[in-house]
């Protein structure tokens, strides 16, 4: 009998989660500053990126609930998601509807007060997002983000930064 080759390790399994992660400190308002992804939709529509605000809560002390506010085609949208704790600290799972719709998420790095770098994986596709407590972060934080981007094989060609103008907030 032939043996099956071992399943290749997913890119996200190689990512080390933030060791000193405090979910209560992660809660609050964040702004999406940048994203690195091979998503073709993002590449085609990057000129239409809008300022995006996210509110994070920790409803049960172990999962993360996000409420994302963004403008799309002139309308304000709220997207609510619930990330459940996964098998290790700093790792979460967003269950979707249907086969192959789950999203794994890892909090890669944060200081809780000014920035957070989060990894997302759906199927074999990985993306990284940079969030800031304000819509602009320091050059040093941008450099940290870009190091994380390069570490998973993405590049500046697949990295997009969000505008800081046109911010709007939930009512």
UniProtKB/TrEMBL annotation:
The family database entries (Gene3D superfamilies) matched by this protein are listed as: 2.40.128.20
What Gene Ontology cellular component terms go with this record?
Answer: blood microparticle; extracellular exosome; membrane attack complex
Disulfide bond as UniProt keyword: yes
Where it sits in the cell: the answer is: Secreted
Residue ranges constituting the Lipocalin/cytosolic fatty-acid binding domain according to the UniProt record: 27-162
Q: Could you tell me the keywords of this UniProt record?
A: Disulfide bond, Secreted, Signal
Tell me where it mainly resides: secreted
User: Is Signal found in the keyword set?
Assistant: yes
Q: Name one GO biological process term.
A: complement activation
In this entry, which stretches build a coiled coil? Answer: none
Per the record, the similarity remark reads:
Belongs to the calycin superfamily. Lipocalin family.
Protein name per the record: CO8G protein
């Amino acid at each position: 009998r032939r043996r099956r080759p071992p399943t290749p390790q997913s890119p996200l399994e190689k990512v080390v989660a933030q060791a000193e992660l405090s979910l209560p400190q992660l809660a609050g308002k964040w702004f999406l500053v940048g994203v690195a992804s091979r998503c073709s939709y993002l590449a085609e529509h990057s000129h239409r990126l809008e300022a995006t605000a996210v509110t994070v809560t920790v409803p049960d002390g172990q999962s993360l609930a996000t409420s994302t506010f963004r403008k799309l085609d002139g309308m304000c949208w709220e997207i609510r998601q619930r990330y459940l704790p996964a098998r290790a600290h700093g790792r979460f799972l967003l269950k979707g509807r249907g086969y192959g719709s789950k999203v794994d998420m890892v909090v890669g790095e944060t200081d809780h007060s000014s920035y957070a770098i989060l990894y997302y994986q759906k199927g074999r596709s990985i993306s990284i997002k940079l969030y800031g407590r304000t819509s602009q972060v320091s050059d040093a934080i941008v450099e940290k983000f870009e190091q994380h981007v390069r570490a998973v094989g993405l590049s500046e060609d697949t990295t997009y930064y969000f505008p800081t103008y046109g911010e709007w907030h939930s009512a």
